[in-house]
Amino acid sequence: MFRDKELFGKLKLYTFDISPEVLDSVVAGEMGFGMDAQQYLMGYLPVIYLVEQATHGFWPQNNAYTGPLFIDSPEKAKAILALAKEGIR
């Protein structure tokens, strides 16, 4: 839609997605950033923590950073583009 109406460069675009199309747009300078909420970590780590508490009786002593991760430069976008195309990120 934005390409058809020649809106890139006229509007600032940001999104809560890191699909391959979004990453390509960040690399091309058409979008400001894509945000990765890192849902895998937000769902996986609590389960691991609960298992550790149930089996060993301890909790983690420090915070675990799970995001969000802002993909706001072509370098960052290129670094994860291959993983996004494979469905890993």
- In helices, the fraction of residues equals 40-55%
- The shape, in one word, is elongated
Mean pLDDT: 83
- Output the number of helix runs: 3
Helix and strand element order? EHEHEH
Could you explain how this protein is built, in words?
The mean pLDDT is 83. The protein starts with 13 loop residues before the first strand and ends with a helix. It is elongated and about 60 Å long. The chain has a domain of 48 residues. The protein contains three helices and three strands. By secondary structure, it is mostly helical. Strands 1-2-3 form a three-stranded mixed β-sheet.
Would you kindly provide a brief summary of this structure?
The protein is mainly α. The chain has helices at 20-28, 39-56, 74-85; strands spanning 14-15, 33-36, 69-71. α1 links the parallel β1 and β2 (33-36).
What's the arrangement of secondary structure elements?
Elements: E1 14-15, H1 20-28, E2 33-36, H2 39-56, E3 69-71, H3 74-85
Parallel strand pairs: 1-2
Antiparallel strand pairs: 2-3
Helix pairs in contact: 1-3
Structure characteristics:
single chain; 89 residues; mainly alpha; three-stranded mixed beta sheet; 3 strands; elongated
